[in-house]
């Protein structure tokens, strides 16, 4: 399984970008996918994840309401829509995929999706947001 990100770039604060991750070979052996990011001097952190079979999604708190994860099974591609970008969103964004489904929890009528540890990683794409 190979992952290749594209779509990064330089954008002003408040702007938008759409990241793409093309997954070659074994796409239908993958059950979970996600996006991570790593800013200079910081640890890599999960941005959003999606279960390939159910479409269940999970977002980091900073991504809720601004970012959207989606997939296109016909194109073997994962997307991350980045809206209302802030300077603090500057980072290298990584695409990831996993063989396992992850887990779900149901609390007070809501369903929460927890992605697994991912097995495959892309090389990353730089997103830079200027003020």
Can you walk through the features of this model?
A hairpin with a 5-residue loop joins strand 5 and strand 6 (57-59). It contains no helices and 13 strands. With 131 residues, the chain is mainly beta. The mean pLDDT is 95. Helices cover 0% and strands 55% of the residues. The protein is globular and about 40 Å long. The strands form 3 sheets. Strands 2, 4, 5, 6, 9, 12 and 13 form a 7-stranded mixed β-sheet that branches. Strands 1-3-8-7 form a 4-stranded antiparallel β-sheet, with no helix packed on it. It has a two-stranded antiparallel ribbon with strand order 10-11.
Features:
single chain; 131 residues
Topology:
Elements: E1 2-6, E2 9-12, E3 17-24, E4 32-38, E5 45-51, E6 57-59, E7 67-72, E8 77-82, E9 91-98, E10 103-107, E11 110-114, E12 120-121, E13 125-130
Parallel strand pairs: 2-13
Antiparallel strand pairs: 1-3, 3-8, 4-5, 4-9, 5-6, 7-8, 9-12, 9-13, 10-11
Range of strand content: over 45%
The proportion of residues forming helix, as a percent range, comes to under 10%
Strand pairing plus helix content: what structural class? mainly beta
Distance between the termini: 37 Å
Rg over alpha carbons: 14 Å
What's the helix-strand series? EEEEEEEEEEEEE
Number of helices: 0
Number of strands: 13
Shape: globular
Largest sheet: 7 strands, mixed
Any low-confidence stretches, pLDDT <50, length ≥5? none
Kindly report the average pLDDT value.
95
What's the gist of this structure?
With 131 residues, the chain is mainly β. The chain has strands spanning 2-6, 9-12, 17-24, 32-38, 45-51, 57-59, 67-72, 77-82, 91-98, 103-107, 110-114, 120-121, 125-130.
